[in-house]
Amino acid sequence: MAASYYGSANDGAPAALEARNVTRSLPLGRERIDILHGISFRITRGEFVAIIGPSGSGKSTVLGIIAGLDSPTSGQVLVDGVDITKMSEGQLASIRNQKIGMVFQAFNLIPTLTARENVEVPLYVGKHAGSPAARSKEVLELVGLGHRLDHRPNQLSGGEQQRVAIARALATAPAIVIADEPTGNLDARNSANVLDLIRDLRERTGTTFIIATHDPSVAAAAERVIRLYDGRVVGDGTPEEVGITEAAAAEKAAAELAVEER
Ligand code: ADP
Ligand code: MG
Fold first, then answer.
1. Would 81 be classed as within a structural domain?
2. Nearest C-alpha to atom 22 of ligand 1 is from which residue?
3. Is residue 12 part of a domain?
4. Checking phi first, is residue 77 left (phi over 0); if not, alpha (psi -120 to 50) or beta?
């Protein structure tokens, strides 16, 4: 019922993204395996949400579905109130280009292109205001890489490469940036930098950020944590409410100890 659905935590604020009872199953030989068993959540514009869960809990599957890269077996995904699960591939490609930016663990930059050219790529797809070169420079400055415009990926550190990838995700000014283990290939310092950057960008641009991670110390940087276990939502609230903070503190202490011992 619509009234109870919208009468929950985020009264009045427009939903950037909503998953309604999303399931995903795959054929495995003559059987089917259920990967997602009815996932529901509602994310408000401008929220910074971490989806946490152990490896195999379904994080990447959820992200693929909410990004329109994969289809649910049943259920709906609404981006800005529009159901994307019934769209054609062409419509989906357009939604992805205009409304959704993606960031991956392995950065996925094109090695032969400079930082600036990598960020321009999505601007050559679909219609976007202004010149790609000017916009690319603007977003690279926004992520603190105004001095690295003409560097290629192999001339940049891992942390810098992930900043370029974040700039590329932001180039089309999407409503939502979806990142799958964005700090998975980074050391502790670069991880912290990328998380600070996400928090700062969220504040300055109002972009919604949804990141998946298995790491409590990463999830602790978000304002809201959705915990997955075995394809189900088993927790949804602030890091404290989901029990992330203590685990994160313990993990951080262990990491610092490991550095000292080296
Ligand atoms: P996570 O990102 O949390 O590690 P995934 O979403 O990648 O989890 O995977 C969830 C579960 O679905 C895992 O058990 C994985 O093995 C299974 N799975 C994902 N994709 C496929 C696939 N294409 N074929 C078979 N099993 C898959
Ligand atoms: Mg994954």
1. no
2. 26
3. no
4. beta
In this predicted model, what pLDDT tens digit does every residue of 19-29 receive, in sequence order? Answer: 999 999 999 99
Torsion angles phi and psi, residue 149, rounded to 5:
-55, -40
- Counting every residue written for the chain, the total comes to 262
Q: Is residue 5 part of a domain?
A: no
Whether the CB of 53 sits within 6 Å of ligand 1: yes
Distance 138 CA to ligand 1 centre (A): 37
Name the pTM for this structure.
Answer: 0.90
Query: DSSP alpha helices (H): ranges in the chain?
Result: 2-6, 59-66, 89-99, 115-120, 132-142, 158-170, 188-205, 216-219, 244-261
Residues (pLDDT < 50) of the chain are 1-10
Q: Exposed, middle or buried by CB within 10 Å (0-12, 13-18, 19+), for 154?
A: exposed
Please check whether residue 56 lies inside any domain of the structure: yes
What total of structural domains would you count in the chain?
1
Could you tell me the CATH number of the domain that includes residue 56?
Answer: 3.40.50.300
